Amino acid sequence: MIKRASVLFMTMAFVISACSSNGASTSPAGASVAPVSQAPVESAAASSAGGAGATLVIWADEKRAKAITPLAAQWATENGVTVKVESIATDITTKFKTASQAGNPPDVVVWAHDVIGDFVQNSAIDPVQGLDTSGFDPIAIKGMTFAGQLYGVPYSVENIALIRNTDLALDAPATMEDLQVAGKKLVTDKKATEIMALQVGQKGDPYHIYPVFTSGGGSFFGLTSTGDPDPKVVTVDSPESIAAGQKLYDMGEKGTGALKRSIDDKNAIPLFTGKKTAFLVSGPWSIADITKAGINYDIGPIPPFADGTPAGPFIGVNGFYVASKGANKTLAQEFVTSLVPTLDFQVGLYQTEPRRPALTAAVDQVKADDPNIPKFAEAAKSGVILPAIPAMGQVWTPFGVAEAAIVGGADPKVALTAAAKAIREGIGK
After folding, report:
1. CA 163 – CA 349 distance, rounded (Å)
2. Contact in structure between 235 and 244 (CB atoms under 8 Å)
3. Taking 60 as the threshold, does the pLDDT of residue 46 lie above it?
4. What is the SS3 string spanning 39-76?
5. pLDDT tens digits, residue range 60-72?
6. Among residues 345, 197, 206, which one has the least CA distance to residue 259?
7. pLDDT tens readout for residues 330-369
8. Which of 31, 204, 235, 424 would bridge with 219, disulfide CB 3.0–4.6 Å?
9. Angle of CA points 68, 71, 77, to nearest 5°
């Protein structure tokens, strides 16, 4: 058995930029290989993997790969194995499934939990063996669990919230209506140019609009008897969802103008850091830019509609997964269960970007110096785990198209009915 690693992070100065949590894949691109660390002696890990020549290959997105590389390198040195951290620029989940089907995947892949159902359905990942879960945030373990089995080792938990420029808006709005009134006044007084920055874009953004849509009564799926999303019951075109769609219309370009297709993932944060709006709906990935811009800010829950339910965001969990067809499955299991759960590893990844660690001891260590950690957690109290069922993959594009159309002035009933039809057809394929 591998000895537990103790990793130093003083040399880590990497900043992870925001990764979209909406589950949609981006266009394919090539992969680059991060530095490799190799130790000269054979350890128990090397022996279990088939000798000192064993090489553990890890896939992660570009900036997570930079953070993981020095941690994995020291682990490799301490345990006498070779570790290669490969940086996959885009479309990592599709590339991973393709590699798995071809029989040559990496040994470990790093990504958000919402792909687990798809990975399991494609026989791409194995359950994690022998992990002591007692030290983790229960929501993180829930995110990594599918069909009653644990499929990943979590390292961070994240969600969006309302981030407010306290120089422009001293008080937090109690309702979404209050936010629109306050934002509109700032625009009228020429202290801002936008009521709020909630990214929509030309193709919609279901992840960011979800808490607003559900506060208005909308939903994507019905629930099973255990409270889990039921892929057999698509509710995007239910009367409640259509009523919620009307609220989005009222906030859109033919309504108050709080929601605009011209605000997307490229300019939402810059609008806030440029003092063009007092209100930003975003996650912890935006904090580095906000701090750099010198904005005085506060973080709180996304306000609900006055007559609605709490605006609970999706909660995402990021983790490490063992490839079913990897060349070094035993070594991969050792890596994810011996290094990823350590305090130093989790704090080290947090230091690259302030996403809440999955390990409770790591949260306790970092929150004393980071008041944003409990504030984002408070904003997630009414949130729900982002569904990891394969059917969720059929929601993003059709619902996003409907959202963008409604914000642009289309009839909510027509747009959501079309989206629901496309979702049902996608699930039925």
Report:
1. 23
2. no
3. no
4. CCCCCHHHHHCCCCCCEEEEEEEHHHHHHHHHHHHHHH
5. 998 889 889 988 8
6. 197
7. 999 999 999 999 999 999 899 887 899 999 999 999 999 9
8. 235
9. 130
Tokens of 100: 């798995």
The pLDDT of residue 53 is: 62
Angle, nearest 10°, between helix axes 343-352 and 360-367? 50
Question: What structural domains and CATH numbers belong to the chain?
Answer: 31-158+315-379 (3.40.190.10), 161-313+388-428 (3.40.190.10)
Q: What is the pLDDT of residue 71?
A: 85
Q: Are the CB atoms for 56 and 335 separated by under 8 Å?
A: yes
pTM of the model: 0.86
Q: Is 321 helix (H, G, I), strand (E, B) or coil?
A: strand
CA 47 to chain centroid: 36
In sequence order, what E strands does 224-372 have? 229-234, 279-282, 297-300, 314-323, 356-357
Do the beta carbons of residue 43 and residue 79 sit within 8 Å? Answer: yes
